[in-house]
Write a structure and sequence with these properties.
mainly alpha
Amino acid sequence: MQWKPGVRRETEQVLWPIAITLVFTAGALLIPPPLVVGSGNWGGHALSYAVVAVVLTRRAVYPLPAIILGLIALGAVLELIQPKVGRIGSVSDALANGVGVLFGCAIGCFSRRLRA
C-alpha cells in the first residue's frame, strides 16, 4: 500500500495513537452515561473499535500484534478510569471493545489480501 504524498510513516506512527486516544478518551469521559444502568451499547463499542482496527490494519502503520494489544489495552484502561469521572466501567464493554478489535483486524487483513 502506498503512503500519501507528504506523509511519512514515522509521522503516522506518532499521530495515529494521539488521535485515537483523544477521540476514545473524549467519548468515554465526556459523553453522558446511559440513563438506565446495564443498558450499555455493546454493538456500539464493538463497532467503534472495529472501525479503528480496520483503518490501522489497512494502513499497515504498525505490526498486527501491536494494533491488537494497543487497542485492547486502550479499551480496558478507559473502562477502568470511567468510575473516577462518575461513569460506570464495565467488563462487558471491555469485552465488546476486544471483540471489535479482533473483528476489525480480521476484516482489515482480509481486505488487504484482496487488494494484493
